[in-house]
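Q: My labmate handed me this sequence with no annotations at all. I'd like to see what the chain might look like in three dimensions before we decide whether it's worth expressing. Could you predict it?
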Amino acid sequence: MAPVPGFETTQFAFGGKTRDVFTRGAGPAVIVIHEVPGITPQVAAFGARVAEAGFTVYLPLLFGVPMKPLSMGYVVSTFARCCISREFRVLAANASSPIVDWLRALAAQAHSRCGGPGVGAVGMCLTGNFALAMMLDSPMLAPVLSQPSLPLPITSARRKALHVSATELAAAHRKIEEQKARILGLRFHQDPACPPQRFETLRQEFGTAFEGIEIDPKYANPSAPKPAHSVLTNHLIDEAGQPTRAALDRTIAFLREQLMPAA
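A: Here is what I predict for the chain of 263 residues:
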């Protein structure tokens, strides 16, 4: 059995780092950057949903064990390892994590293979703002920031920070002005990991180029851990009429608008 059922297992090397990347589908490339603790069954199901919508999904393994079920112990242990890793700067307010360089290179390779006007990326939780930082030096035109949680919001300054550098912000503005890039953000109200100040910063920075979807936590999957956090995975209620399902549908529509303009 493949490590992620339904996906092909490949590898990608850049900057001395080689990682497994699971791929599926055909069409413009979308990098799905998994959340803590890793590529859980819920993350894989989201990736499959994007592939079925007409995209080539690239699902790189950044940490964790593919398809290991979610548990609180698994979340805590993986998060602790990320905090001490040199590839993640969990407190950096005005700089991205070093692992973003590897993701940019993956995006460039994916675009060269899949074609289209550019690539998309869906970052989640710890990786949420990575999609925004990838707008520098990569063909990123459709970043989706799902509950972006870095920098850790332990001070007022960090609650409104975006975990990107001034150079990365400038690149995002250029992509918006010159290539019609747009940015989509998703979060639950009252999510302590992704405070409202962060979305206010995105609105102030990007104006109408940023679309923010914020959901009342009463609409989160009640069987998932609390507080409500993971819009597209753990806290999704995949039923028509549910706000989280509407957010999922909007995410796919956004990717189509940006990467399949003819459609």
